[in-house]
Amino acid sequence: MPPPTRLLVASIGNPAPYLNTLHSAGHTVLRALTVPLSTPPLVKSRPHANGLLAHSPTHPITLWHSPSMMNISGPAVATAFRAFQKEYPGAALVVLHDELESALGVVSVRSGERGTKGHNGLRSLAKAVGGGYTRVGVGIGRPVAREGGEVAKYVLRKMTGGEREALEGCVGGVLGELERLLEGGK
Predict the structure, then answer these.
(1) Potential cystine with 54: which of 14, 39, 67, 159 (Cβ 3.0-4.6 Å)?
(2) CATH of the domain at 65
(3) How many domains is the chain built from?
(4) Averaged over 39-57, what is the pLDDT?
(5) In the predicted model, what is the mean pLDDT of residues 6-30?
(6) Residue 123: inside a domain
(7) What is the rounded CA–CA span in Å between residue 60 and residue 7?
(8) Helices 120-129 and 74-87 sit at what angle, rounded to 10 degrees?
């Protein structure tokens, strides 16, 4: 299979008031990617499910910030990607998301066909999009307590300055993975 002609990098997370939480790490990293990709500001795009969109003038990469709540983000991602494929046949979808099972700032790449590990946003995505995309997880660590209520409190609390720095610091690793995908790497 030939490498994709362009990537739609879609971040999933939550809108305000949960935008600056660990659960929205994908959005934090997407905004940080605008610098090395030299994109103009992200702007609302009606055809792309009202998400925020920006095209890189230096890389065949388009950034898209989901407007939906994390746990129901799948339909918006599917709508945006269908519109994107009409503009860029041969394009591929890459989804940026928080990864509870990885240490803060650690980047992992998986096929969209892999299990969701209980991540409701990825579950919604799998239902709406199916497979055929790549997931880039950004580690947010895990609280010591494993009970659902404690995990929810952990991922929905405001991130600290140090946590934001660690997430923004993984942008080079994310960009390297995107470039590898454009070269045909899996």
Answers:
(1) 39
(2) 3.40.50.1470
(3) 1
(4) 95
(5) 95
(6) yes
(7) 6
(8) 50
